[in-house]
Amino acid sequence: xxxxxxxxxxxxxxxxxxxxxxxxxxxxxxxxxxxxxxxxxxxxxxxxxxxxxxxxxxxxxxxxxxxxxxxxxxxxxxxxxxxxxxxxxxxxxxxxxxxxxxxxxxxxxxxxxxxxxxxxxxxxxxxxxxxxxxxxxxxxxxxxxxxxxxxxxxxxxxxxxxxxxxxxxxxxxxxxxxxxxxxxxxxxxxxxxxxxxxxxxxxxxxxxxxxxxxxxxxxxxxxxxxxxxxxxxxxxxxxxxxxxxxxxxxxxxxxxxxxxxxxxxxxxxxxxxxxxxxxxxxxxxxxxxxxxxxxxxxxxxxxxxxxxxxxxxxxxxxxxxxxxxxxxxxxxxxxxxxxxxxxxxxxxxxxxxxxxxxxxxxxxxxxxxxxxxxxxxxxxxxxxxxxxxxxxxxxxxxxxxxxxxxxxxxxxxxxxxxxxxxxxxxxxxxxxxxxxxxxxxxxxxxxxxxxxxxxxxxxxxxxxxxxxxxxxxxxxxxxxxxxxxxxxxxxxxxxx
Length: 496
Fold this sequence. Notes:
Layout: H1 21-28, H2 52-65, H3 75-82, E1 87-88, H4 96-103, H5 111-133, H6 141-166, H7 179-182, H8 190-207, H9 222-235, H10 239-251, H11 253-256, E2 278-282, H12 295-298, E3 319-320, H13 322-327, H14 335-338, E4 339-345, E5 348-355, E6 372-376, H15 377-391, H16 398-409, H17 429-443, H18 450-456, H19 460-464, H20 480-485
Antiparallel strand pairs: 1-3, 2-6, 4-5
Helix pairs in contact: 1-5, 2-5, 2-6, 5-6, 6-8, 8-9, 9-10, 9-15, 10-15, 15-16, 15-17
């Protein structure tokens, strides 16, 4: 799932894509149906993976897994935004399981936990297949190394999501060929999982190019590996490593071509995909069977008819909170790009918040061209500012420079250590930390970062206390089905 002219219909990819037993046994109960989950049209793996084209298709399947409902099609915005104070469910018809995530009443049998778990391990299995099988294929050595680098970047991204959502998770680095092999895997410590994430990203960084052209636009790049590695270090509170890696990326602008877009509106929408600020996006293509994105329909208010999105059903998910709207500073140009507070249907105005960033005209219901941006350059600048400040506050030092770059584009005045306006005066490490948190919230609104930012900074329980969050809910429950399948090795997170 790369740039639009390279998007494959996943139904037509002839690759044995048997997902790992850790995921598949959830649906099969470890029955003989396990092997039936590979489409009948797919070739047996023993007769496949012979040519470079086979491996290209295998890699496409890894990218394709990012489109699954349990990954960026739905789960990552449900967890990254709906779980946070940015958005909420205002209409129960939007979905009981999503309501449970929003209200902190989700339990081990809630489908979002199992769907997210399954989809990520299916993608990891696809990555493991490529990494294992490509060694036996006679092909150009540099292309082989690049394919492995792409697969390892994608595997690292999926493990990064898993470890942030569930904590300790099984670490599967080889192909699982039958359900019985899955019983050998229990939960590994977050430390060990992070070690593997870092190893994969380091290898990917060394193997991937800075840029692509033509049909290869949208593939993982060296810059994507560096940006994600910087985020991993930041999440681990390894401030020096984070700052060093992020600064390397910033200093490589001549090679990466990354820069802030002149306007905030110029980042989003089908006409702006894979732009100079974008580092990595999940690619979607409307009008191609199974390749479109649902966001335009998902985020339109229930009852809005064709007022917000002209084709398909408005589903009322991820509704911005009133508090979020009020959190914008006066004059912030990002607000009206990111959200609206009303719509007009049949000449009548209805007050209702909704997200605007992902609006488009779908080809059909849940079938638009809108990509999901996973990493962009503004995120890198804000992470670097945060890492600098955590190493030590410097009044009006470099951290201010990078933070204020983001504010300038938003039409906001600079923050400084000495300022006649108390609201703009940042004279301590704690104040700068709060300023970065707020800037990240507004800049990256509805892009799936807020919940993870609150958790990694230890602020989630404080911020979400009014919604009933308890400390143990910083992690999601392990799907009960996984514990039922393998009770000897799989344990539940405390509090569930």
